[in-house]
Amino acid sequence: MTEILTTHAGSLPRSAELIAANAARPVGEDGLTPAPTDEFREVLRQAVVDVVARQREIGISIPNDGEYGHLMGSAVNYGSWWSYIFDRVSGLELTGDDHFSGEPVRSGPGDVRLTTFPDRRDWTIFAEAYQDPNSGVTVGSQPTFPVATGEIAYSDTGRELVAQDVTNVQAALGSAGYEQGFLNSLSPGSGSRIVDGHYGDVDAFLDAWVEVMRPEYEAIAAAGLTVQVDDPSIAENWDQINPEPSVEDYLAFTRKRVDAVNRALAGVPTEQTRFHLCWGSWHGPHTTDIEFRHLAPLLLEIDAKYYSFEAANVRHEHEWTVWEDLALPEDKVLVPGIVSHATNVVEHPELVAQRLERFARAVGPERVIGSTDCGLGGRIHPQIAWAKLSSLVEGAAIASSRL
């Protein structure tokens, strides 16, 4: 029997104690959070031990720290996968100028530019639904993001924080009896989506983020862990371009971000790299998402062994058929989302098994690891999140027995 392994995209529900400890941390004069206190470090350390142990109890094959080292001061938070990096990078300040202010930006043929967040095409097409608090459409809270006001660099605080993440998860993995695990890290392309108030050139700013993220990737890999590069920008940027660009122009724009990932990963062994692609974790219609068939070949250009992507939500589930036509290199592994962060309905284990079997038939069961669409922490209720992971494990066992 070929066992189909299970994992998840990264973020898991935080404990009430950790959320309270995060919320209580002071904010510095620059609006960012300073290095943690010894008291906070102990709360975080124990929380990581507990979340890894719970993954073991459920039966998750490849765990992480739940992204607990990524600050989340409230139970609902869609953005900690991104905002955590702000405390680790010098040259950033809160100025009041962010993604939710300013005039909309317009693109043209051969000149692809990201517009402001409120000008996203999905948000404007369904403006009535997005503005109705009873519609069920949610985008999470809208915090103020920093602006790059000087040369950016991975800071000494960043090095301390990633070392803390590594130490915590290594100890927790050992305690729970795991031999492998991963840590999540931001992509250069996603980092470069914050407002640039210094470089004045999109490509130069992207290049700067390559240098910023490289030390974090290398620190994680040097510890023997797998680096998961989280990069919604590869797919999500499409919706933040007005008017809709040609696919050719968008792929040219995106290939620069793929190249940025590869340059930042140059010192990391390919077998220790996972890459996560998604269309944004907000709970909305997503009618303006770019089709996966346009992105899948580009995905394979990323120097990673494992490719994680959304495949369970109702906007993208049908796109598993891409892998019937696109040849997956023999040394690569698919990590498709099999349960979704976008619904409170807990997927039946039989549905989980059927979804896994589709991918197994397309590329071989030994090259499929069942996962989640996006992180579950901060997006759905903890009780539902853990039930989804349990269903994922149960369904993987069913699929394995049949394969």
UniProtKB/TrEMBL annotation:
Name of a matching Pfam family: Meth_synt_2
Protein name: 5-methyltetrahydropteroyltriglutamate--homocysteine methyltransferase
Taxon lineage: Bacteria, Bacillati, Actinomycetota, Actinomycetes, Micrococcales
InterPro entries: Met_Synth_C/arc, UROD/MetE-like_sf
CDD domains per the UniProt record, alphabetical: CIMS_C_terminal_like (cd03311)
Entry keyword set: Methyltransferase, Transferase
Top-rank taxon: Bacteria
Domain Cobalamin-independent methionine synthase MetE C-terminal/archaeal, residue spans: 210-396
